[in-house]
Design a protein that fits this description.
Cytidine Deaminase, domain 2, Ubiquitin-like (UB roll), 5-stranded mixed β-sheet, alpha/beta, homodimer
Chain lengths: ~290, ~290
């Protein structure tokens, strides 16, 4: 397998700004970066992503993958990110067929972050088969939630970013990506999975954001049967997951969760065997975005 | 002024689904609707918005306004929403000039919801002048926060939606819109403002979501000098607001806030004169989307 030739572009992820509180007190706070990254495919401008900038090459690759603009890693010869001009230049080996037509239909989605799903991804969903035998134990859910809670993160420093993570069913963390747009975070993980040859069928996806239709579709595109969120879901996220036989767990925090779809995939265990609820969640739970 | 002829399409905004918690207990919970609404302008397909569906006509109108596809309400002859086919048919009086060209450039933004800003809105920002004399009192901020806290909402029933609101500087609520995509909520308010001839220059905009670049730009397009959020901001939201002389207040909850930009617009008052902190916020503050 030839891997794409890629830069490893870096850029500051937070900035200090001055704030004045309700008592007139001044302080310096950190806020996350948000910057445009314009993607060019074979010199043709494709899209501008607004991103934190933590994993730009993986983001671009995962975006192309999840938009189904490239079908295999082999098709991508190079991804060069240059932050001085806010550009990602993608070179393919054989061009992207029908790129004009395939990027013409625009769906502006619910998600934070990457709002556009090109083409007719919804129609593809029915072709996706998730591994029917995949199971997740309740203790695995708790290990994932505990790991997320204790991670070092941009969020803890600056707030205002979403986090996504890929775990094994045993609760081992494989990838963790934060971004100002949560769909960017998903796409970056999809890109990393491709680069490392990681399959999704026996993995668990965690997101701090809501389980909307687009999140469910992106999870399905990566063949991941389990989606966990500390937030809630929407009707369409719920119905697409039901159609796919994907297991959604919402409101995952501490020892609590709500299992919403395909309950047969989750192995409930006696709570007494699972350890006590950790202290108040000092990580992501301190948030108040208004959407849960 | 001729108002557009419009439907008043309604559709259920929540759905009951079954959930199983960590102890195996079953319950019914409410989740918000999320449905596609495909917008046709003079029979040409423009975009598909994923929306809750609470204010579809205002959403479509505000979308056209904030994307600068129509410049005045007079240009819009009719907006017909038909939920049975998920379509909004817009008829204009004179057509939309250069619609092909103006919808060709795609920026996938940070926001929840409507992710795409067509064209070169960023370049327009420098032409926007917010009223330099507009001021907001600290007591007005608290009235706004208290009003939001006590509103009946889809959020309280079902979670997983964003709320946006327009207030007078005295704290009077003019509009409140919820949507699964927060940019839809902003656009719907922009549509309502147009229909009612409401100007933004002496108003305050409140959002449960983050103050990203796109939120700041949309606020500026409506000429609103004050943006309040219970969440945080991003570097680009902050820098665009600074350039515009727009006042951002982040982390507005209870009696707390962080004033981030154009501090001269806010009149701080002795906290002792402002009443005590209300009890724990039982409304939006109970959330945990992971992004604040």
């Amino acid at each position: 397998m030839r891997l794409p030739e890629m830069t490893r572009a870096t850029v500051p992820l937070t900035q200090e700004v001055q704030a004045i509180d309700e008592k007139g007190r001044r302080s310096l706070i950190h806020i996350p970066a948000e910057r445009p990254l314009t993607v060019y495919v074979d010199k043709r401008e494709l899209v501008t992503l607004m991103t934190l900038g933590g994993a730009p090459e993986a983001l671009v690759l995962g975006y192309l993958r999840n938009q189904r603009l490239v079908r295999s890693l082999e098709e991508v010869a190079a991804i060069h990110v240059d932050w001085s001009v806010g550009a990602a230049a993608v070179r393919t080996r054989g061009g992207v067929a029908d790129i004009e037509e395939r990027t013409a239909r625009k769906v502006v989605t619910t998600g934070c972050g990457q709002g556009s799903v090109f083409g007719s991804l919804m129609e593809e969903v029915d072709d996706i088969v998730l591994p029917p035998e995949a199971r997740l134990r309740q203790s695995g859910v708790y290990r994932i939630v505990d790991t997320i809670r204790t991670l070092q993160s941009i969020y803890k420093q600056a707030g205002s970013v979403h986090g996504c993570a890929l775990f094994t069913r045993e609760g081992e963390l494989l990838y963790f990506v934060e971004d100002v747009g949560r769909h960017n975070a998903v796409d970056a993980i999809a890109g990393k999975m491709w680069l490392d040859g990681v399959q999704g069928g026996d993995k668990v996806f965690y997101t701090t954001g809501r389980l909307t239709s687009e999140m469910v579709i992106k999870g399905a595109q990566m063949s991941i049967p389990f989606l966990l969120s500390r937030s809630g879901t929407t009707q369409m996220g719920h119905s697409v997951a039901t159609r796919l036989g994907m297991t959604l767990l919402a409101r995952c925090t501490g020892r609590h969760f709500l299992l919403l779809t395909s309950p047969e995939r989750l192995i409930l265990e006696p709570v007494s065997t699972l350890g006590s609820d950790p202290k108040v969640d000092t990580g992501w739970a301190g948030s108040a975005d208004g959407v849960a």
